Amino acid sequence: MTIDINKDAENKVEFGTPLLKVWKAKKGLSRELIEDISWQKDEPQWMREFRLKSYDIFESKPMPNWGPDLSDLKFDDLTFYTPAGSKKTRTWDEVPEEIKNTYEKLGIPEAERKYLAGVVAVYDSEPIYEGLKEEYTKLGILFTSMDTAIKDYPDIVKKHFMTKCVPPTDNKFAALHGAVWSGGSFMWVPPNTKVDLPLQAYFRMEGKEEGTFEHTMLIVEEGSEAQYIEGCTAQQYSTNSLHSAVVEIFVRPGARARYTTVQNWSSDIYNLNTKRALVEEEAHMEWVGGSMGSKITMLYPCSYLIGKGARADHLNIAFANKGQHKDGGAKVIHAAPYTTSNVLSKSIAKDGGHAGFRGLLRIAKGAYGSRAKIRCDGLLMDDLSRNDTYPDMQVHQNNVTIEHEATVGRISEEQVFYLMTRGLSESEAMAMIVNGFIEPVTKELPMEYALELNRLVQLEMEGSIG
Q: What is the DSSP string of 269-310?
């Protein structure tokens, strides 16, 4: 569907007119589609131009020729925009029944009542619910979908959206995201404000041969603290789908931000994301992640330490089961003196799964007094599986301290036998060992999310996911 606003006056279609009822999903990618998406969303002219510029960059960039094989990913087979067919609401009662049932099964409304300061829920390509508790609204905190933010807070969004943090020139999939992004969440925390409960966004991919491209923008101003949690799930189909998100985080001087994600994708998903944080003077950025499911994952959260005394901690768990390739890791760029980074990656491979750690550590000229530590541990459950490590360390400054450690091992038969003599079954014994292996990461999660991640790992062990 293309609407030519200059074609004739009889159309009388104005911005703000709800067009969801007449949108017809189509496969493939084109300039016409991108213009249609922007029109459907009633976006400002600058965003429409940004999308088209990003599309030109996408067309000019080659597919990655390193890492997992992406040859089976066919853009012409994908639907890049799928509206939810309903307006955003601020109460769960107003969410359409069939969508509400999905989120109730996932426990989202209950979690909001008990553990969260607010929730943004995205279904396919569109936000369907936004909620922030009144006490946090009074503090001046902004927490909405990106679609709302671009209209309600245009100056903040335009200043930060894919400019210095993740520009569309960064890689082919960042450019694709810039062209077709939809949904996602926006958080702004005013200076010297502490958010004592997490804010959460939950993304649900429901269709087959679909692409979802939610955009997350988190801005934590000077002296503030905030936690943000993202959850992702998808239906299981026999055809490929694509998830290509962008996360941009801005941690101002003296601020602290934690980004946590628990992803439970179906085994037909290509999970190809770009996530990055700009960390200023004496600020602290924490990444905590658990990655389950997906056919192929390429995910390397990045911290740019651009202020003196900035710090970044990266903690991640990845589970590669049969037919899955998890190529994950972390990137840290020390661009200022006395900066600190710690990276801990835990990966598990089972039934022929392929897990890999790909890490970049760069100490820039002038980043004297910096300290960096990287540890990646792999656990192989059988002889069919594989675990690789690809470290890239670029040091351009003296007077720095760097540590790197990588280990790969098998579950000890002696450990399993010992636990079985204490009354555990073989599967229970192996699960206990795996839980101990990932404990350094799960202990950093809120209790309810640690329990959820342990449950997902248990299901992976049993082959019940995907």
A: EEEE-EEEEEE-TT-EEEEEEEEE--SEEEE--EEEE-STT-
* Cα gap 321→71, rounded to integer Å: 20
Q: CA-CA distance, 174 to 74, in Å (whole number)?
A: 17
- DSSP reduced 3-state for 175: helix
Strand pairing report for 340-349 and 371-380:
parallel
Helices (H) and strands (E) in the chain, counts: 11, 23
Rounded Cα distance between 270 and 176, Å, is 14
Question: Hey, how many other C-beta atoms are within 10 angstroms of the C-beta on 343?
Answer: 25
pTM listed for this prediction: 0.86
CA dist 5 to 44, 191, 445, Å?
15, 43, 50
Give the count of beta carbons closer than 10 Å to the beta carbon of residue 11.
11
Instruction: Provide the 8-state DSSP code for 62.
Output: P
State how far the Cα of 279 lies from the Cα of 257, in Å rounded to an integer.
Answer: 9
In terms of Cβ atoms closer than 10 Å to its own Cβ (0-12, 13-18, 19+), residue 250 is buried
Q: What is the sign, positive or negative, of the torsion defined by CA atoms of 36, 39, 45, 46?
A: negative
Exposed / middle / buried, residue 443 (Cβ in 10 Å: 0-12, 13-18, 19+):
exposed
Query: What ranges make up the beta strands (E) of 55-176?
Result: 118-123, 126-132, 142-145
Mean pLDDT, all residues of the chain: 83
* Dist CA 173 CA 166 (whole Å): 11
When mean pLDDT is compared across 83-92, 195-204, 226-235, the lowest value belongs to 83-92
Which DSSP string corresponds to 20-53? GGG----BS--HHHHHHHHHHTT--HHHHHHHHH
Q: CB within 8 A of 191, min separation 6: which ones?
A: 221, 222, 223, 224, 252
Q: What are the phi and psi torsion angles at 327 (to 5°)?
A: -110, 95
CA 359 to chain centre: 17
Q: How far apart are CA 361 and CA 333, in angstroms?
A: 6
Separation of alpha carbons 35 and 32, rounded Å: 5
d(CA 358, CA 350): 19
- Position 201 scores a pLDDT of 81
Residue 242, pLDDT > 70, answer: yes
CB–CB of 391/359 below 8 Å? yes
